[in-house]
Amino acid sequence: MGIRFTVLSSGSTGNATVVDNGETKVLIDVGFSAKKMEALMKERELAANSIDAIVITHEHSDHIKGLGALARKYDLPIYANEKTWVELDRQIGVIAEENKRVMETGGFEEFGTLRVESFGISHDAAEPVGYCFYEGEQKLSVVTDLGYMSEKVKEKIIDSDALVLETNHDVDMLRVGHYPWSIKRRILGDKGHLSNEAAGEALCDVMTNKTKSVYMAHLSRDHNLMDLARLTVNNIVQERAPESKQLRLMDTYFDRSTKWDVLDSE
């Protein structure tokens, strides 16, 4: 059937996405308790024991909160690079050695016909990554938690059928918000989070006629609004790429999952 995916939830309180090609189901991050993860998957008629593997982007709690518990309960293999594993070992409890899999940054793993590639990104974590998923000619890219979109990252995610892309904050809302300046500086820095404007600009550089949908992810509940993120990104895209009529800007949610999105098989 090709690739389908659902963003189970996304935001500062937790993140998780499932990618499924009909034979293999891969979970990206486990940012909620095992019980909450089971409930989110149930919304999409997905059983937790049907997951074949977990891939981790980085070790921050909103991406690994329930990782240890879920992996132990369902005997799931976890893939992360070595530096991330150093941090995971300190946070998630005992994991069976056979389920601790090293996937180096820039490497590939194959799960049947589903091919997964990791790539480095800029964030204040040990060795954070994004992922591209390939099935035949189909490509899904998932990239959040990055301070800026480097040319190397753009090269990895260009020409995707669909993207899960960070639109974390509106710069003006963040600047006048209640956070201490030290935290604002971190978010705005090169190892922080991508703003609506930066996401829109980057999207114009990586989208092609093949790109059909972009899921705006990891929104700040304090310094962004979904309508504002969508308006900002759309305005930039329409100004720089007015011919991109087929592009759909899709919402993600901090408290519920998105509907399954099936990539075009053509």
UniProtKB/TrEMBL annotation:
Q: Which domain of life is it from?
A: Bacteria
Ranges where the Metallo-beta-lactamase domain occurs: 13-218
Reaction catalysis annotation: 3',5'-cyclic UMP + H2O = UMP + H(+); 3',5'-cyclic CMP + H2O = CMP + H(+)
Which sequence ranges are marked TM in the entry? Answer: none
**Described function:** Counteracts the endogenous Pycsar antiviral defense system. Phosphodiesterase that enables metal-dependent hydrolysis of host cyclic nucleotide Pycsar defense signals such as cCMP and cUMP.
From the Swiss-Prot or TrEMBL record, give the protein name: Phosphoribosyl 1,2-cyclic phosphodiesterase
